[in-house]
């Protein structure tokens, strides 16, 4: 018989389910495994397989997030000091890319038919030029056909000014220079670079503005919104100056003052003087309509006009200018809405392959990847919370993109406008507190970094594991996979799945330990009876 316990005693006992979850996490198992039913098409045998959720945030699934981080570290390590050009085969086109090219083909045919019939082709030529832009935008390299059509006037106006940099002919090589030491040893140094945004006002060591009223929150917000574009410009300029197809692995993180900064692993080296030159010449101009005067506050919002599909001014009944019209109205003497730049201070160090420095830098690069941007530095004090709130307020009404609902506030109809848009309620990620204005990807990797995708790195890991354990990979064509839903008789509730994860992980761990012992000369046979489950 169990002895009687008080309520307080019972409450202080660990909850069984929490223990299972913690155990799963402790063993590196996924805490939210997805259940799949696997049918062996040769034998008809059905097996339940638990697949890891694959989430990259530690708050959601610590094990999957840690695995994703390790994979990124492997990717970073592999590309940093490559001494041979990576082999790249183009990815097959995706559906969106195919769609644009199909549109383009159709338009070309219509244009050529109109031309043969002696009709005007101006409209179709213009459409082709726009489709070419969409094709490029969707991530396809090159043109389907060299276009003779001049771009629209406003596109040329919005062109970025050429940076003030000497331009070298870019050679197609992606690996850095080597240096020979007096003793004949050959070095191929690489670089670790940290770049920050400019100052918005003095801050203390814990990131708090000395004078919040003088801190430039608007510029901070706009720099964060356009940080990804600024980074692209930096890379273009570095390639231009160094004259080779420079490759990078970069991680974007917030500083304590909540402005983004970026750690960059670069293959090859750039001198400090050259870096200073590139930073001074690198900026990103945002050629958007003006957004500094509020024309419609929340009490006087533009009204949707159903029949025309446009927004109109409630006071005058006039249509708001469309996005394209507002861009066309930007005159030659106008200033860009914003010019984003990096701050003048940077940190740069040379790193040699396989060194302690290299491992430490890879640690920096992947340190915060399992956290949301805003969770990297949790506000501890009231003043830190105030600072975060002021930045969130600045971001609330700042337009995040041409389609942002906030444009209505500044008297411009956003691109692709629809009914029900409200300034301050844009659903763009950049406005959400957890993003601090930066909605871009956290890891930016150039195409020829390691010559492999994350999926390739994952496959490498699996191959290593299978080889270590001495088991053959399964033939994917042999199995049929289906998701198991709560209504199915073989559906496992989450608690049951977690018990399986713990049992499986324990067996895997034992098997791996034995395999390693065997590899180092001791003899043993691992038990691998349930190798299907790997969650
Ligand atoms: Zn998971
Ligand atoms: Zn927005």
Ligand inventory = zinc ion
The average pLDDT value, as a whole number, equals 85
- Tell me the radius of gyration: 28 Å
Q: Which range does the strand content fall in?
A: 5-15%
The total strand number stands at 13
- Structural class by helix and strand composition: alpha+beta
Element pattern in H and E: HHEEHHHHEEEHHEEHEEEHEHHEHEH
* Continuous helix count: 14
Characterise the protein shown here.
- The chain has a six-stranded antiparallel sheet with strand order 8-11-5-7-6-12.
- With 535 residues, it is an alpha+beta fold.
- It has 14 helices and 13 strands.
- A hairpin with a 5-residue loop joins strand 3 (179-180) and strand 4.
- Helix 4 (95-116) runs antiparallel to helix 5, helix 7 (217-225) crosses helix 12 and helix 8 (227-242) crosses helix 9 (272-281).
- The structure holds zinc ion (2 copies).
- One zinc ion (ZN) binds next to loops.
Give the key terms.
single chain, 535 residues, alpha+beta, 6-stranded antiparallel β-sheet, 3-stranded antiparallel β-sheet, 13 strands, 13% strand, binds zinc ion
């Amino acid at each position: 018989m169990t002895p009687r316990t008080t309520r307080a005693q019972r409450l202080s006992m660990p909850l069984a389910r929490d223990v299972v979850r913690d155990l799963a996490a402790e063993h590196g198992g996924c805490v939210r495994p997805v259940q799949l039913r696997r049918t062996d098409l040769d034998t008809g045998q059905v097996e339940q397989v638990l697949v890891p959720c694959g989430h990259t945030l530690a708050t959601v699934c610590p094990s999957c997030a840690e695995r994703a981080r390790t994979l990124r570290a492997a990717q970073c390590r592999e590309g940093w000091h490559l001494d041979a050009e990576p082999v790249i085969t183009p990815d097959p086109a995706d559906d969106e890319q195919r769609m644009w090219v199909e549109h383009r083909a159709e338009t070309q045919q219509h244009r050529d038919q109109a031309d043969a019939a002696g009709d005007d082709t101006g409209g179709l030529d213009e459409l082709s030029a726009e489709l070419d832009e969409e094709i490029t935008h969707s991530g396809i390299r090159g043109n389907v056909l060299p276009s003779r059509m001049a771009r629209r006037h406003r596109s040329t106006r919005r062109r970025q000014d050429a940076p003030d940099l000497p331009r070298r002919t870019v050679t197609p090589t992606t690996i850095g220079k080597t240096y020979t030491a007096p003793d004949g040893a050959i070095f191929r140094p690489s670089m670790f670079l940290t770049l920050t945004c400019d100052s918005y006002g003095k801050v203390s060591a814990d990131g708090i503005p000395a004078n919040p009223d003088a801190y430039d929150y608007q510029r901070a917000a706009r720099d964060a919104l356009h940080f990804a574009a600024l980074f692209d410009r930096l890379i273009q300029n570095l390639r231009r100056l160094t004259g080779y197809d420079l490759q990078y692995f970069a991680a974007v993180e917030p500083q304590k003052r909540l402005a983004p900064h970026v750690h960059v692993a670069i293959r090859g080296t750039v001198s400090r003087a050259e870096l200073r030159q590139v930073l001074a010449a690198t900026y990103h101009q945002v050629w958007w309509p003006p957004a500094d005067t509020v024309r419609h506050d929340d009490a006087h919002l533009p009204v949707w006009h159903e029949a025309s599909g446009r927004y109109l001014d409630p006071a005058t009944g006039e249509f708001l200018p469309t996005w394209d019209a507002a861009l066309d109205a930007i005159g030659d003497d106008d200033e860009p809405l914003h010019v984003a730049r990096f701050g003048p201070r940077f940190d740069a160090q040379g790193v040699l392959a396989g060194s302690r420095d290299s491992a430490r830098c890879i640690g920096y690069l992947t340190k915060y990847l399992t956290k949301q941007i805003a969770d990297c530095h949790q506000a501890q004090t009231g003043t830190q919370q105030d600072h975060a709130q002021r930045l969130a307020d600045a971001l609330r009404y700042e337009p995040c993109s041409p389609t942002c609902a906030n444009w209505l506030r500044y008297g411009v109809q956003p691109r692709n406008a629809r009914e029900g848009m409200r300034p301050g309620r844009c659903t763009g990620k950049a406005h959400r507190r957890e993003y601090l204005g930066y909605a871009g990807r956290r890891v930016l990797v150039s195409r020829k970094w390691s010559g492999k995708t994350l999926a390739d790195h994952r496959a490498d890991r699996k191959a290593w594991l299978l080889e270590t354990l001495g088991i053959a990979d399964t033939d994917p064509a042999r199995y049929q996979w289906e998701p198991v839903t709560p209504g199915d008789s073989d559906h496992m509730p989450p608690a049951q799945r977690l018990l399986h994860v713990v049992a499986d992980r324990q067996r895997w761990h034992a098997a791996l330990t034995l395999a390693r012992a065997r590899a180092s000369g001791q003899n043993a046979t691992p038990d691998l009876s349930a190798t299907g489950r790997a969650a």
